[in-house]
Each structure stands twice: as structure tokens, then as C-alpha cells.
Write the C-alpha cells for this entry.
Amino acid sequence: MTDLLFAAHDPALLRIWQAANIGIAGAGGLGSNIALSLTRAGIGRLVIADCDIVTLTNLNRQQFFRDQIGMPKVDAIAQNLGRISPNTHLELHYKRIDAGNLDELFGNCDILIEAFDLADQKQMLIETWISLHPDRPVIAVSGVAGYGNNNSLLQYQIGNLYLLGDGHSELIPGISPIAPKVAAIANMQANLCLELLVRIYHEDK
Amino acid sequence: MNTIIVNGNTVDWEDGMTVRSLLQKMNFTFPMLIVKINGTLIRKDEFDHTLIPAGANVAVIHLISGG
């Protein structure tokens, strides 16, 4: 049964994406944007984990609204996604992600998308996922600060580790990423996720 | 073969070279690094004692906060 929301989707692609189970680790500037795009694309199941609540300063780049301030980000995302599509099943975890619970949270995901803020968390996720599931892709980000210079946004791959971003821009303490660039990189992650799902589907056939 | 490849560049290999000594030699000082040797991930806590074989293909990526 398919919602008319997807009447203008390619049915062969939609079937692949509806069968997918994608993990999003973090629900901030990257994760909130990734979840929207993957839901619009028709991904069948999203597992989203984050331990933060929405604050006003998040709204300069994250896909939340003023009436959601104080809500857990995972609940605010569920509310927003539900206003777009009932077709993506959501598994939400309002908790901190660490090496000890990563597999319990995301172990049944086809692809894990890293959407953390801090580099040490990114490292933990990449190391843990590659050790546990070397055969499954992880899509991570390094370098989201600033604005402009679209040509600096790159995709780098070693094995099943994909890294997006400019690879060098450092955040200035107290200054957040800026909406267009972090949303662009989040959507590069979502775009790559859709591509990998199609590639994996054809390889498995 | 007394060289290795690091991020596509040829680098002299030394007997007993570890991930840690390579990172120091290359001046890779970022605190958060992903290292793969011939496609295999080397965890951060293994940098000190993991030997790099001659002829290895090494990838070093640094991770920057932000997201």
C-alpha cells in the first residue's frame, strides 16, 4: 500500500528504499536534515538516537520550530516527519550513544549515518561500527564549519567508510555551523545513502 | 621495498615503524584520526604497537568536530 505522496516516485527505486532500515546517530544540524530528506525519499524505517532537547540556539540550523523548544530532539523529529509522511516507521531512542550500546541501537540497520557534533564521538562511532560490521557502510562527516566555497565539499571513501564535508574547516569555539552548509552536507549524506542502497540491491541480486 | 604509500604519497619506510611513529613523522597532530592499513582499520588504542609493513598502503583521515 503506497501513499499518493509517492505517486511521482520511480516505483522501482521506491521499492528498494521502502525496504531499507537506516540508522541516524545524532539529531542536530546533520541528523534533523537527513531524517527529513530520507523520509521524503520513502525510506521504510529510520532508527534515530540523540540525548538532547531542542533549544532556541539550535534553530539557526536545525530542522525544529519554536514551539518544540524543550522537547527531546528525537520526539520533535518524529512530530515533523509525521506531518510529512506516515510511511516511514520510526524507532526513536532518547539516550546518549556510546561504544557499548551502538550495536544494540543500530545493529539491524543496513547503513549507519554519523550525525554527531564532536570529533571524539565521530571516531568512537566509526571505529565501533567498522569493527562490528565491516561489510556495512558508515557515512560520516568531517568539516562543516563556515559558509561558501561549494567546490570544497567532497566525498572520500576507504572501503565501507564514506566521509563527506570539506575535511578541514574548524569550528570557532562558541560559533555553530551555519545552516546552508551543514544542511548541504547532511543532504549529501542522505543522497549517498540512497545511492548505496540501490548499489547494494543490484549487487545482491 | 622500502617505501609505503600514505594518502597517495610515497613515504620512506623504516624498520619498526608503528602507526604512532608514522603520524609523528608526518606531523599529523589532529587528536581524532581514522587510520587504515591495506584497508584494515587500526583502532586508536592500537596506534602505539601496530607495525606498518613495508609497501603498505596507509590512509589517514582526520575528524573535525561539527555537525
Remarks:
- The beta strands of chain A are 21-25, 45-49, 89-93, 111-114, 138-141, 154-158, 161-165.
